[in-house]
Amino acid sequence: MAKGDLPDGAHAELHAWGQRGSENFTYNLSGGYLDQQGIVKKTDYDRYNLRLKSDFTKGRVRIGETIILTREYWRTMAGGWGGQGGNPVGSALKMIPVFQVYDPTAVGGYGGAYGQVVNIASPVAQLNLEVPETRTTSAIINGYAEVSLIDALKYRLNLGYTNTFGAHNDYTYPYKVGALFNNADADLYQSKSQKEYFLQEHTLSYNKELGKHNLNGLVGFTYQNTRFDVQSGSKSGMPSGIQVLDAGTTNIASGGYAYESALVSYLGRLVYSYDNRYVLTGTFRRDGSSRFSPDYRYGNFPAVALAWNVVNESFFQPLQGVVSNLKLRSSYGVLGNQELSDYQYDPTITSNANYVLGSTQLLWPGAIQTTFATPNIKWETSKTFNVGADLGFFENKLGLSADYFIRRNSDILLRVPIPLTTGASANAPYINAGQITNKGVEAALTYNNKMGEFTYQVTGTFTAIDNNVDFLGTGTQQISGGQPTHHGQSATITKAGGPVGAFYLIKTDGIFNSQEEVDAHSVEGRLIQPAAKPGDIRFVDYNGDGAISQDDRQYCGSPNPKFSYGFGSNSSWKNFDLSFFFQGTYGNKIYNGLREDLEGMNLEFNYSPATLNAWTRRTPRISRVPSSTTPT
């Protein structure tokens, strides 16, 4: 099937596989191809993959490997031409539709906006005049060797190596689109990247059963190393359609960077069970990351879990006809997080920061610190307490699993904004910024049954999580985010006492329908919105200072749902199977930032049809859309 035969958003997928072997040796070879067309025209993705897996056993020795080879291709959307529309999806919503799409007389062949309008690029021109493509080739190789040393004691070596080579090509044709977008010469940007990942794991495991007692233990050491480097170059002025850097003549630029990180771990696990009734599990990890300074490189992360199979107790036997499974569980554990950029504990010095000095105006070369170091950053920790139960009824046809948990993340790794006066505010440093607590319940109800050759399973899920920032930074620190439009204010604030990314907005209280209503909106005889006129929005003076400002923002909801739910089913009959799953959320808020542009009518964008019902003096009590949404 050719790509052109697929409708937008469709995909084709092919698989082939085979398995062979003997008593001591087995192998499996499989391959696949995926072709998926994007919902947006000119975007697509395809992937080829080949997988080989084999195992060999001889006496006390067992060895094997898995090799996966993958070739991928992406054609993505243009990233935006500097206007306020952004990528083609944003431009399609904001572009005024009366402008012509094509213009044979223009360079590039596409029309666009002109006159006193906001600089929105034509989405059709963006998709056709810029071609961003990415190709990657990956090889994932994993091998292992396992030796039975003595009875119940095994040594295992795992080795892994991944090599991913990527090539990105972004070519832009010469164009003149409307009066606002002009590219005199063809542009070409190319980058090559290589990422190498190496893993080695050494483990000793012990498994012994003595009567009703079972003991399973493991100790090990692991080492992970990641290396990544990128080289890039760009030029302009090549003949149209030629995508070779040496064909360019102007705007010559090159760059490159590299990083390397390592993680070592010492680990141990002990599992003791008695009579298939009581299970005690203890684990311990000591991890060391190169992303932290030598004084804070290592973190210790223990965990303990206890389970009780009540159904296997003698006093429970009379109920087993109805209750076929009852297991009670409890656990407490600590995990570490080291997901931050490399080298953050060292300051970054940028060279070629030239400076003009003296009466002769000589240009002196120099260097400047562009990133502030935080050498005392350390591991972020996540402490989780969990209690739960698993129940089965009627020979486990009906199953219920429920958990209650408290997860507290401490020493959270965040980039915290710093003042502009520091000279490096564009690269906010990482700090251990605070503590966040999540409490919640998770439950799943499953029903399994079989009728002849037809089997089916029905599953329902429910999750409710309460998210709260306990403290952040110095205690009064706030992190703003969620800027909804090119020119708008941030819509969210993360601060102590509320959820992460909570919406803080200036609330509205209807529309001024007359000058009398404008005059009545006052404090101690002073107008709260002195520039307002009939048809404008009435804003709530939340802090009561007699003026509308960012200080009047108030909590308006959380992006986190009060609860989420799901429903699904798996069924099969002979050689046919069918699966589906639906999920949803309730109670979370979504901020539609596009309405500021599409319904604001204060900037020359494409307007929403809702503005056809904007406020007028003839319909003052009917319309919910103001004549302008500009704060007054």
From TrEMBL:
Stored InterPro entries: Beta-barrel_TonB_sf, TonB-dep_OMP_SusC/RagA
Keyword annotations from UniProtKB, A to Z: Cell outer membrane, Membrane
Localisation: Cell outer membrane
Predominant localisation class: membrane
Keyword Transcription regulation part of the UniProt annotation: no
Name of the protein this chain belongs to: SusC/RagA family TonB-linked outer membrane protein
Organism whose genome encodes this protein: Hymenobacter volaticus
